[in-house]
Write a structure and sequence with these properties.
The protein has 278 residues and is mainly alpha-helical. Helix content is 66%, strand content 0%. It contains nine helices and no strands. It has helices at residues 3-16, 23-42, 65-87, 99-119, 137-156, 158-161, 168-179, 181-190, 208-267. Helix 3 packs antiparallel against helix 4 and helix 3 (65-87) packs antiparallel against helix 8. The longest helix has 60 residues, at 208-267. The protein is elongated. The N and C termini lie far apart (126 Å).
Length: 278
């Protein structure tokens, strides 16, 4: 957003005289993109596709190469369109540097930002930027509110916003040019770019002494791990033998107790009841 208006305002002011984007118009553009659009994009609900995306490391770049690809591509498209409308007013059939001419440029610029806002919902190579658009009511509400306010500024706030009313064909022309940001986003996503490997993943440059010391430390750690594993196996074996001895001693004690009871029963038999007949 800031690349296009800054470059366009600077170049048009230096080489074109009267800047086409006035102060109120620039404030409106920054308001709808830096406040409303940021709020709408920040409220996007997470999707199950996020589970398939690898996590970001602490050394990763905040702005990835894919983001730079989208920013530069969209900014270039906006600058080409705006400079063509500024320096070739005959294509629009309006007088150069007239109020109608500047209103068309301002309205086209806002439409470009609106459709680029839809592109910004996907910052990776996902092609379907309209997926889940209607489920986010706040995002849809921001788009509708921005469009309504833009129509109000152009049609009813001529003195305040330095604009003039446009015809239906001129509105359709501005919307068609702004919609061109959508297919441009598809084309940009087809251009695959590679992300740089973070420094934490790349192999550092080590000297021979550092490599030798690292290998020695690795051998010592491996030996200690093997000793710990051997002691653990030995403890488990001793525990098993001790448990078996306890079980065997318990069975011997039980056998002695049973044999003692059997011998006692043989020496002192239990008297039986005798029946007496009369």
């Amino acid at each position: 957003v800031n690349v296009g208006p800054c470059v366009f305002a600077l170049v048009s002011s230096v080489f074109g005289g009267d800047p086409p984007l006035k102060a109120v118009q620039m404030l409106w553009v920054n308001l709808i993109m830096d406040t409303f659009a940021a709020l709408a994009l920040a409220t996007e609900q997470p999707t199950p596709d996020l589970l398939y995306r690898p996590p970001y490391g602490r050394n990763d770049n905040l702005i990835t190469n894919k983001m730079w690809r989208n920013v530069i591509g969209q900014a270039a498209y906006q600058l080409v369109v705006l400079f063509t409308m500024l320096y070739f007013p005959c294509l629009l059939r309006v007088d150069p540097h007239s109020l109608k001419h500047h209103t068309l440029i301002f309205n086209t610029f806002v439409m470009l930002q609106l459709f680029n806002e839809i592109n910004s919902r996907r910052i990776t190579d996902e092609m379907n930027v309209f997926k889940g658009l209607l489920t986010n009511k706040l995002f849809s509400g921001v788009l509708v509110f921005t469009l309504v306010m833009q129509i109000f500024l152009v049609e009813k706030c001529g003195v305040f916003a330095k604009t003039t009313p446009l015809t239906l064909n001129e509105w359709l022309l501005c919307i068609a040019i702004g919609f061109g940001a959508i297919p441009l986003g598809f084309v940009l996503r087809m251009w695959h770019v590679k992300e740089p490997v973070p420094p934490s993943v790349t192999r550092p440059h080590l000297t021979f002494r550092q490599i030798f010391a690292a290998k020695k430390i690795a051998r010592v750690l491996k030996r200690k791990a093997e000793e710990r594993a051997r002691k653990h196996r030995l403890r488990r074996a001793l525990s098993t033998v001790r448990l078996a001895g306890l079980i065997k001693r318990d069975w011997h004690a039980r056998d002695r107790s049973l044999s003692r009871r059997a011998s006692t029963s043989a020496l002192h038999p239990i008297p039986h009841a005798h029946t007496h007949t009369q």
